[in-house]
Amino acid sequence: MERLKALLRLTRPPNVGLAAISVVIGAVTGSLSVAAWSPVLWAALSAALVTAGGNTLNDVADVAVDRINKPGRPLPSGAISTAAAEWWAGLLMAGGVASSYLLPAACRLIVLLAVAAICAYNFWGKGQPLIGNLMVSIISGLAFFYGSLAADRGWWGLIPGVLAFFFHLGREIIKDLEDMEADRTEGLRTWPLVGGEAAARHTAQAVLIVLLLILVLPTLQGWLAVGYLMVAVAGLGIPVAVIVIGLHRQPDTAAYRRYQLILKWDMPVGLAAILFGSI
User: Fold this and answer.
1) Residue 175's domain spans which residues?
2) Among residues 180, 201, 209, 190, which one has the least CA distance to residue 251?
3) What is the pTM (predicted TM-score) of this model?
4) How far apart are CA 76 and CA 86, in angstroms?
5) Which residues contact 61 (CB under 8 A, 6 or more apart)?
6) How many domains does the chain contain in total?
7) Which of 164-199 are b and which e, b meaning 16 or more Cβ less than 10 Å from the residue's Cβ?
8) Which among 141, 171, 230, 247 could bridge 164 via Cys, Cβ 3.0 to 4.6 Å?
9) How far apart are CA 134 and CA 121, in angstroms?
10) What is the mean pLDDT of the chain?
């Protein structure tokens, strides 16, 4: 039972749930009506499995860093072996790919590209300045587009997908700022270590400012109802603006951690905003 719990923890269930919900949100963006729910649910399942596998693989790739930053995780604590985690990640992602074969060809292609990108990120991209951040952000945004394709709703999923891209890119850079010491120990080449802490802070600020500027576009363009704007401005705009200001004050590691956690817990708010705008 303890082994099973450790395997489950590796997947990070809250993130898996958010991935599945993101697919559903992409399917209903602009209108809560979907002609056929079956492909949407299969898409949500495949996204959940790929995300679970990717999170597990991320822990495998990060085991050395986690021994410093997060020793209580299943791998650094010895609750599960690296070999078992690798098999678990492969099984989960294979299940995600298999589930996508019940969907249109474009969906299958997205899943295969996502799996390839996850593997490339974990074993190469995460140690490259900005490249790894961009890869994670693109994968996160694709979940919404994946849902709209599964529901045969065309480009609608790009609306939350683009917003998610900038949201995740800003958070990923802040996470790199938080992890500078551990990443330096492991010889990684993240943007804060290559470009300097100040440059990374300014990059995160610029990305989040772009997010603030485009946050109102879905309602201004008539894509989403005013309910989206109300939730997005209050629930996302204000916290993001506070973080942008905070990044201007040369924060320490504790502040970086606080900022990325604020953004993490703000993800459900963003999903709720899209839902409100689709009513």
Assistant:
1) 2-278
2) 201
3) 0.93
4) 14
5) 122, 123, 126
6) 1
7) bbbbbbbbbbbbbbbbbebbeeeebebbbbeeebee
8) 141
9) 10
10) 93
For the residues 28-47, what does the mean pLDDT come to? 92
Beta-carbon contacts of residue 255 (< 8 Å; ≥ 6 apart): 246
Residue with the bigger pLDDT between 72 and 120: it is 120
Average pLDDT over residues 249-263: 93
CA nearest to 272, candidates 39, 29, 3, 88:
29
CB burial of residue 32 (10 Å; 0-12, 13-18, 19+): exposed
Structural contact between residues 119 and 136, judged by C-beta atoms closer than 8 angstroms: no
Amino acid making up residue 8: L
* Cβ atoms of residues 221 and 177 within 8 Å: no
pLDDT, residue 181, reads 86
The 10 Å Cβ neighbour count of residue 63 is 15
Residue in this structure with the two tokens 């683009």, named with its chain if needed = 162
Average pLDDT over residues 69-80: 86
152-207 residue pLDDT tens = 999 999 999 999 999 999 999 999 999 898 888 878 889 999 999 999 999 999 99
Burial 229-244 (b: 16+ CB within 10 A, else e): bebbbebbbebbeebb
Q: What is the pLDDT of residue 176?
A: 94
> If you write DSSP's letter for every residue of 74-90 in order, what string do you get?
HHHHTSS-HHHHHHHHH
What's the CATH code of the domain at 126?
1.10.357.140
Which among 249, 154, 170, 261 is positioned nearest to 215, based on CA atoms? Answer: 170
